[in-house]
Design a protein that fits this description.
By secondary structure, this protein is mainly α. It contains 1 helix and no strands.
């Protein structure tokens, strides 16, 4: 999941508790 966040880090970062490289 963290890998896919790279593409939608903006939408995932806010919905992902594992925002390590999302800022």
């Amino acid at each position: 999941m963290a890998t896919t966040s790279l593409s939608s880090r903006g939408a995932r970062a806010a919905d992902t508790p594992l925002r390590i490289d999302y800022g």
